[in-house]
Amino acid sequence: MPRELLELATVFRVGHAKQIRDIICPALVPFWSAAFAINVGTGWKTVLMSELISGETGIGAAMNTARVYLKTEEVMGWTLLGKGLEILMRISTSGRRGKSYAFRTNQHDV
């Protein structure tokens, strides 16, 4: 759909700035939001694992200490806390994913 809109914008001599703002950027929003959500999830897992391997403080370090002393219930508790925080981060960064990205059609000057 953006390709046809760009062709129409060219035919009707719409400026490049207006094409970028009104056609190209809205078409890229779903890809940007998906990439952002994936990067946040991967970053969270990376931080947790680096704390687990070499940290002295944090959730990963507490999980490692509990693992060393064979405190299974504490390991499971820290694991559930880490997973719960990851789910909250995914929900907070999901934004408009799954919703429609309709182009604005009520503008008179496009």
Topology overview:
Layout: H1 2-11, H2 16-54, H3 59-68, H4 72-94
Helix pairs in contact: 1-2, 2-3, 2-4, 3-4
Write down the Rg: 23 Å
Q: What composes the largest sheet?
A: none
- What are the segments in which pLDDT stays under 50 over at least 5 consecutive residues? none
For the secondary structure, the number of strands is 0
Percentage of residues in helical conformation? over 70%
Portion in beta strands = under 5%
Query: Outline, from the CA principal axes?
Result: rod-shaped
Helix/strand order, N-terminal first? HHHH
Class from helix and strand fractions: mainly alpha
Number of helices: 4
Question: Average pLDDT across residues?
Answer: 83
What is the distance, rounded to the nearest whole angstrom, between the alpha carbons of the first and last residues? 16 Å
Top keywords for this entry?
single chain; 110 residues; mainly alpha
Folded structure, characterized:
With about 110 residues, the chain is mostly helical. Helix content is about 75%, strand content about 0%. It has helices at about 1-10, 15-55, 60-70, 70-95. It is rod-shaped, with a radius of gyration of 23 Å.
Brief characterization of the structure:
With 110 residues, the chain is mainly alpha-helical. Helices cover 75% and strands 0% of the residues.
